[in-house]
């Protein structure tokens, strides 16, 4: 009640926050719409009647059949035709987090329904991939044979073998991330589809128990993944990450205690990170636990949670260049971690600074950095600077989102977009024939991969728009997933409520949200 009365006393401020934040320069709403559309181009399986990317068709219709399981559906991870479980699950987790934090803003733009559909396309597949409590299929297709071919998904002749983990061949990182995805997504559907939400959280419980009881790295069991998605960080970060999401989804004290008891031994309080992504989850865990602390939920774990928060804030300060351990940036100001698909780190880090900015603002706090105290607005400003760079405010004046602006990549390293649509020319494209005819073309893609965020420039802001330049021109689902939340926040402004007390909105905002969210309205 005391917290609620403090919220009421802040109502004039909250009413002001209900007004859109004016962020001129780019059309973030348009970029948001395009970034969500990209996921429809990555769909595998039977495409629905309302499919908007019409140059794609059904594919992978026998996936899992040889193993006696239905693995039709899900997402291709990038420009290939393989379904990799670890990055797919992370993609679902981050899309869900985007919706949970900024669902109302997504509703204002008319994209909430599309975002929820994108999550469900992924979770429907994850349910299929988890047919038994201690069995999880983590890959369909083999990267080696797939990369030997350049074919449309609709023409695939490559090996579609399915690979799994089980109690004799564990994969705590894969199972942990899948548990996190299921738990996060369960909250998205809690009010609009409670039965489906319950099914998801049930899978999440089982997957967490599987991950925790039978420990091991998934790429030691699914060795074909090592060349493409090797788990460098191990599995401790995913176990903590899954526990954090299960606590939010279930409010079960067991998972909060897990974070408190294992924070030190599993690295949650020890690792000071400068990256966040499909492999390394520590910064994400630290951000969520800092949120729990600011929500007053830590209880007797407060000393441990404070150490998590110190590492979370070290990450934030490092992004701003005001910490003891700062991220590297290009001369143009873009976060730079590596040449191969650097954008994945840009969007994931920017998402964390966006949500943490709102957590701090809701708590009435500033960020304590080594150089100085930082206002929450500076964290959001940093995220905006990264998004603006992506959308064209960079030394090359290039938009790295396909289809946004006037100068964007034309030769994307992506099999489906680079080959004429099967609907326009149904003639079979062979494995090697695709390389000879389509991959080697020095021309724009016949199908525009709208909304795809490509790998991006090198450490000196240089970029070569060439199809064989996979390090820079290949997109990925996990590049786009965190971007949904950032673009929703920049497009829709502040949600108008305390981000640490979701569900308690200012009265004006409730009515606006109900009108905008329509049947998808929920309280996370």
From TrEMBL:
Its EC number is 3.2.1.4. Residues 1-24 form the signal peptide. Residues 28-487 form the Glycoside hydrolase family domain. Gene3D superfamilies: 1.50.10.10. One of its GO terms (biological process) is cellulose catabolic process. Belongs to the glycosyl hydrolase 9 (cellulase E) family. Pfam families: Glyco_hydro_9. The keyword Ligase does not apply. Keywords: Carbohydrate metabolism, Cellulose degradation, Glycosidase, Hydrolase, Polysaccharide degradation, Signal. This is Endoglucanase. It is an enzyme of class 3 (hydrolase). One of its GO terms (molecular function) is cellulase activity. The active site is at residues 413, 465, 474. The lineage of its organism: Eukaryota, Viridiplantae, Streptophyta, Embryophyta, Tracheophyta. PROSITE patterns: GH9_2, GH9_3.
